[in-house]
């Protein structure tokens, strides 16, 4: 028993859910490749052969709209396809010599047979990585992946009555849920209200129609806001009077989500509501930033009040722990040893001794992180 | 005593000093802003090359019973180990590639093929050595606590065996470094005298040694079966070659004549510009072509490395041109020479300083391995701080000219003394005749 553990030790924190044997072999080989791992040699032959970290290869790039593309990715060793529809992954892309990271919802349905996943990316005016992804990633590009995460997910079995409310790229986690339900053939009573500015900017339009045709219990309500106006939550009673009974998932711009949250709370049914926020509202910080010091790495930089400490650190070359990069997963939490930071989402201040999420915090005056 | 006032030593005025610092900041900014795809490709290529060499070496050594295979395998493995230590380990752990945001090529996660754990080396080297560079009493890398490399340190009888200690250090360099790092780690952590196994540093140290020794001296020989002996000698030889080379590079970068020493007084009031200057005056380069530069981890540009320890090594050559130009402009010395010459100078110091001070002629204010601003003083008055311009060339006259002048006047003084002695002798002769 101890021998087994000794052999596995070097590969202990590698995720290889279905292959414990492989991990043991890997651990054993590590003894002769030390201080490297077998992977360091293996990915000379194939960049996907790394169990030290997840990698993937872009095998297909599909245009969804003029500003959105779907990347179909074949993950390398150790990827766990048992993710829940609605979860997101982190993706790292090599650009100009650096690795850039973002998180995107998986749009594929979990699937062990095809061993493929997909994400759908919409170009954001200021999103450096998203515009690059949409602008063109060559097929065959190797990307780094962070394991699927997130609580915004469809449970199994799914609830009997579902309401989805989405807008813009908020549809991406939902399409994964719909595809999963469609694939399993047991579509519950589901209403999907989705808003897009125009027909041209509507993602997955044909697919929504097709699913609706295949499943009478699925209603797709597409609201083209430029011509039809905004979908008013007040009209829910008129169109879908049983909406209060439905387990609801909503994803879209902050304004929409805030409104939904208010209404559901008011109705006293907020325990039925699941929200996913994509954007960090950065506008309303009065702070001017300050000097951030990374004490262990002995580096510091002046930043404005809108730059996250995570980005600030990465730009300096400090190795920052991160996961979702949007304040959900707590991977990026580090102790604040001095000064104050501000939570970009809530505007809440944190002071010395607090453990803070670097991805959603900005400097509020000079501060020091233990990194 | 070593340098206590670097400004005076360097013949720079306050304004000159600041301007000099600003120019170096600009050099750093230029490089930082232009790091990109090409640099990233360079380090990845280097990593691939190193892995292939090592793999190749290990495979060839399977046939190490045959002499040519032993030779070829040992050579491949030696080169692989050298690249791994110099261009990869040393430089990656300096954070030179952290900007890539690549978790696999990052100072936090890199572990190297040497007996000492990376973590301990980083503390001793990146922190102690690079912060307190050449400050006598603070920088333990001056002689690694074994050799007396400057007459700022008092002589002890043990120094008599220095020539021997030097050979031993060279051959077992990685062990010397490992022990040295372990000590500094404990010192920095304020670890009290505990029982051996209670100390986390000791445990990390032993674990690493176990793995390293186990791999090179047990596992690989065992894997080759009957040819175990030849594999063992091949591995030992490769380690030895790497040790000797790393030792030579380090010694050529720190101990040739002209690599100055400093005092704590200088450190305490130091400005950023003075920091640059201390790194520059404290280090020495050696001349190298492309291949040799690569094999030394670009530490043939030790001066540039000490000024910009975390900029990518493949850019040091380019930086060196700029630093060289600045030396011209401010009339500062740029200590360099062939590898052989630099090493011989270091060797001379090692042997000379094994002797007690009473046997040595120069003082610590004016010796080949250490000097101070006092050597330029006349009486107690400080060196003139006003800018001196050569009326003929219109160029600034600073430290480099001063050193040259000092050398000339020393030579003249010697000549003069000889001449007088001869005259005296002649006089005596003619009197007795
Ligand atoms: S990276 Fe997930 S919470 Fe910050």
From TrEMBL, chain A:
<dbReference type="InterPro" id="IPR012675">
    <property type="entry name" value="Beta-grasp_dom_sf"/>
</dbReference>
<dbReference type="Pfam" id="PF00111">
    <property type="entry name" value="Fer2"/>
</dbReference>
<dbReference type="InterPro" id="IPR001433">
    <property type="entry name" value="OxRdtase_FAD/NAD-bd"/>
</dbReference>
<feature type="domain" description="FAD-binding FR-type">
    <location>
        <begin position="51"/>
        <end position="155"/>
    </location>
</feature>
<keyword id="KW-0408">Iron</keyword>
<dbReference type="InterPro" id="IPR001709">
    <property type="entry name" value="Flavoprot_Pyr_Nucl_cyt_Rdtase"/>
</dbReference>
<keyword id="KW-0411">Iron-sulfur</keyword>
<keyword id="KW-0560">Oxidoreductase</keyword>
<dbReference type="InterPro" id="IPR036010">
    <property type="entry name" value="2Fe-2S_ferredoxin-like_sf"/>
</dbReference>
<protein>
    <submittedName>
        <fullName>Ferredoxin reductase</fullName>
    </submittedName>
</protein>
<feature type="domain" description="2Fe-2S ferredoxin-type">
    <location>
        <begin position="290"/>
        <end position="371"/>
    </location>
</feature>
<dbReference type="InterPro" id="IPR008333">
    <property type="entry name" value="Cbr1-like_FAD-bd_dom"/>
</dbReference>
<keyword id="KW-0274">FAD</keyword>
<keyword id="KW-0001">2Fe-2S</keyword>
<dbReference type="InterPro" id="IPR017927">
    <property type="entry name" value="FAD-bd_FR_type"/>
</dbReference>
<dbReference type="InterPro" id="IPR001041">
    <property type="entry name" value="2Fe-2S_ferredoxin-type"/>
</dbReference>
<keyword id="KW-0285">Flavoprotein</keyword>
<dbReference type="Pfam" id="PF00175">
    <property type="entry name" value="NAD_binding_1"/>
</dbReference>
<dbReference type="Pfam" id="PF00970">
    <property type="entry name" value="FAD_binding_6"/>
</dbReference>
<dbReference type="InterPro" id="IPR039261">
    <property type="entry name" value="FNR_nucleotide-bd"/>
</dbReference>
<dbReference type="InterPro" id="IPR017938">
    <property type="entry name" value="Riboflavin_synthase-like_b-brl"/>
</dbReference>
<keyword id="KW-0479">Metal-binding</keyword>
UniProtKB/TrEMBL annotation, chain B:
<dbReference type="InterPro" id="IPR005804">
    <property type="entry name" value="FA_desaturase_dom"/>
</dbReference>
<feature type="region of interest" description="Disordered">
    <location>
        <begin position="411"/>
        <end position="433"/>
    </location>
</feature>
<protein>
    <submittedName>
        <fullName>Acyl-CoA desaturase</fullName>
        <ecNumber>1.14.19.-</ecNumber>
    </submittedName>
</protein>
<keyword id="KW-0560">Oxidoreductase</keyword>
<feature type="compositionally biased region" description="Basic and acidic residues">
    <location>
        <begin position="413"/>
        <end position="433"/>
    </location>
</feature>
<dbReference type="GO" id="GO:0016491">
    <property type="term" value="F:oxidoreductase activity"/>
</dbReference>
<dbReference type="Pfam" id="PF00487">
    <property type="entry name" value="FA_desaturase"/>
</dbReference>
<feature type="domain" description="Fatty acid desaturase">
    <location>
        <begin position="69"/>
        <end position="336"/>
    </location>
</feature>
<dbReference type="InterPro" id="IPR012171">
    <property type="entry name" value="Fatty_acid_desaturase"/>
</dbReference>
């Amino acid at each position: 028993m101890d021998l087994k553990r000794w052999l596995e030790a070097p590969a202990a924190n590698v995720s290889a859910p279905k292959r414990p044997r492989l991990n043991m072999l890997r651990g054993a080989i590590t003894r002769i490749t030390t201080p490297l791992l077998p992977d360091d040699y293996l990915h000379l032959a194939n960049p996907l052969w790394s169990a030290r970290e997840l990698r993937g290869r872009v095998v297909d790039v599909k245009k969804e709209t003029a500003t959105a593309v779907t990347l179909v990715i074949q993950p390398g060793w150790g990827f766990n396809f048992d993710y829940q529809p609605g979860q997101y992954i982190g993706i790292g892309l090599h650009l100009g010599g650096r690795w850039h990271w973002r998180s995107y919802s998986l749009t594929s349905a979990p699937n062990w047979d095809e061993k493929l996943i997909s994400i759908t990316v919409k170009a954001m005016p200021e999103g450096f990585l998203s515009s690059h992804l949409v602008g063109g990633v060559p097929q065959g590009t190797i990307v780094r992946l962070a394991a699927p995460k997130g609580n915004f997910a469809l449970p199994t079995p799914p609830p009997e009555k579902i309401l989805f409310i989405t807008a813009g790229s908020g549809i991406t986690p939902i399409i994964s849920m719909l595809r999963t339900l469609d694939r399993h053939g047991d579509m519950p009573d589901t209403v999907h209200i989705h808003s897009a500015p125009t027909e041209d900017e509507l993602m997955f339009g044909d697919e929504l129609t097709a699913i609706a045709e295949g499943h009478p219990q699925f209603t797709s309500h597409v609201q083209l806001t430029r011509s039809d106006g905004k979908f008013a939550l007040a009209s829910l009673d008129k169109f879908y009077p049983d909406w209060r009974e439905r387990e609801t998932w909503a994803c879209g711009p902050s304004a929409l989500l805030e409104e939904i949250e208010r209404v559901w709370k008011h109705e006293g049914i907020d325990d039925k509501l699941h929200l996913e926020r994509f954007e960090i509202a950065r506008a309303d910080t009065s702070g001017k930033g300050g000097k951030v010091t990374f004490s262990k790495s002995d580096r510091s930089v002046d930043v404005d009040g809108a730059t996250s400490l995570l980005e600030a650190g990465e730009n300096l070359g400090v190795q920052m722990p991160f996961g979702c990069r949007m304040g959900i997963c707590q991977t990026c939490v580090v102790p604040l040893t001095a000064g104050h930071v501000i939570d970009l989402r809530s505007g809440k201040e944190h002071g010395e001794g607090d453990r803070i999420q670097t991805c959603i915090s900005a400097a509020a005056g000079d501060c020091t992180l233990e990194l | 005593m070593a340098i206590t006032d670097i400004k005076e030593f360097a013949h720079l005025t306050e304004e000159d000093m600041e301007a000099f610092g600003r120019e170096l900041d600009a050099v750093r900014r230029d490089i930082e802003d232009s790091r990109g795809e090409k640099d990233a490709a360079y380090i990845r290529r280097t990593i691939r090359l190193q892995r292939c060499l090592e793999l190749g070496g290990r495979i060839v050594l399977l046939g190490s019973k045959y002499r040519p295979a032993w030779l070829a395998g040992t050579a491949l493995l030696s080169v692989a180990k050298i690249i791994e230590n110099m261009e990869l380990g040393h430089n990656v752990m300096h954070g030179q590639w952290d900007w890539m945001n690549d978790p696999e090529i990052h100072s936090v996660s890199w572990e190297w093929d040497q007996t000492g754990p990376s973590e301990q080396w980083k503390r001793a080297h990146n922190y102690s050595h690079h912060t307190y560079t050449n400050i006598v009493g603070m920088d333990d890398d001056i002689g690694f606590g074994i050799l007396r490399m400057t007459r700022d340190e008092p002589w002890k009888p043990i120094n008599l065996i220095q020539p021997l200690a030097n050979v031993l250090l060279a051959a077992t360099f990685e062990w010397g470094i490992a022990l040295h790092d372990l000590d500094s780690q404990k010192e920095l952590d304020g670890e009290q005298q505990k029982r051996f196994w209670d100390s986390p540093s000791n445990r990390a140290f032993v674990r690493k040694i176990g793995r390293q020794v186990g791999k090179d001296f047990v596992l690989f020989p065992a894997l080759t079966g009957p040819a175990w002996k030849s594999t063992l000698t091949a591995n030992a030889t490769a380690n030895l070659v790497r040790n000797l080379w790393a030792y030579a590079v380090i010694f050529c970068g720190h101990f040739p004549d002209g690599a100055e020493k400093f005092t704590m007084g200088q450190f305490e009031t130091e400005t950023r510009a003075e920091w640059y200057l201390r790194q520059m005056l404290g280090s020495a380069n050696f001349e190298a072509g492309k291949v040799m530069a690569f094999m030394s981890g670009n530490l043939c540009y030790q001066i540039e490395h000490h000024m910009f320890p975390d900029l990518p090594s493949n850019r040091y050559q380019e930086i060196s041109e700029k630093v060289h130009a600045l030396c011209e402009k401010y009339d500062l010395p740029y200590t360099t020479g062939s590898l052989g010459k630099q090493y011989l100078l270091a060797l001379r110091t090692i042997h000379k300083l094994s002797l007690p001070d009473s046997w040595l002629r120069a003082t610590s204010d004016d010796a080949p391995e250490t000097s101070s601003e006092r050597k330029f003083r006349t009486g107690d008055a400080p060196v003139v701080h006003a800018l001196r311009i050569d009326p003929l060339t219109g160029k600034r006259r600073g430290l480099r000219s001063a050193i040259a002048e000092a050398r000339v006047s020393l030579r003249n003084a010697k000549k003069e003394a000889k001449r007088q002695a001869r005259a005296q002798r002649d006089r005596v002769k003619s009197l007795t005749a």
